[in-house]
Amino acid sequence: xxxxxxxxxxxxxxxxxxxxxxxxxxxxxxxxxxxxxxxxxxxxxxxxxxxxxxxxxxxxxxxxxxxxxxxxxxxxxxxxxxxxxxxxxxxxxxxxxxxxxxxxxxxxxxxxxxxxxxxxxxxxxxxxxxxxxxxxxxxxxxxxxxxxxxxxxxxxxxxxxxxxxxxxxxxxxxxxxxxxxxxxxxxxxxxxxxxxxxxxxxxxxxxxxxxxxxxxxxxxxxxxxxxxxxxxxxxxxxxxxxxxxxxxxxxxxxxxxxxxxxxxxxxxxxxxxxxx
Length: 276
Hints:
alpha+beta, 276 residues, three-stranded antiparallel sheet
């Protein structure tokens, strides 16, 4: 190898540094025939690379970052073309989009858990609050007094599978009780189970929980005594000249941190309009 030719080349250390990788990676790529140096000094076996090899190496590094196997990359290099690269990248973009959607769903679920824990740490069980809520879309499952607990679990599980949730607790869920039933004293006649899917869903038949002003209260204790809390809410609404509308949305806040049903804390939220 002539000295003036060597000056046009980069050592393995220089080339590795240029691309932010370990030179052992380049040595391994050479050993498996994936990416070979431009020249090798026959006297000492030193590897040299030229700048024009950078684009191919960067493509290989990108594909490895996308978890493309060595065999797939070798096959691509053998048949390298715009079409083959586009097909490979299209496939990986689809996989990435799926992963990103899943991570966003996890992020929202974790955010909901954190919000629930904040509520648990700051709430007053005896207080009824007025809050503002944004609109949200809910998947609902119709139930009645005859729907057994086992059947409810089956229906909830079926819905989570329909929306390709990986686990039941990837979504927030609860129960709905109509304001009409509250006024009639039918405190146990729930109409639906609801599931809040942690990613945008564009399907017909979803229940829209309206944006607006809500009463919020909390209940802890024997499930049989829950009607007493609703009587308190009705008395509060009457005293403050508020008309409850739509549905009461119940959700257990702390089932992830307790094993005892009697310690469950239920958040109750009901939309209302002021009476003139």
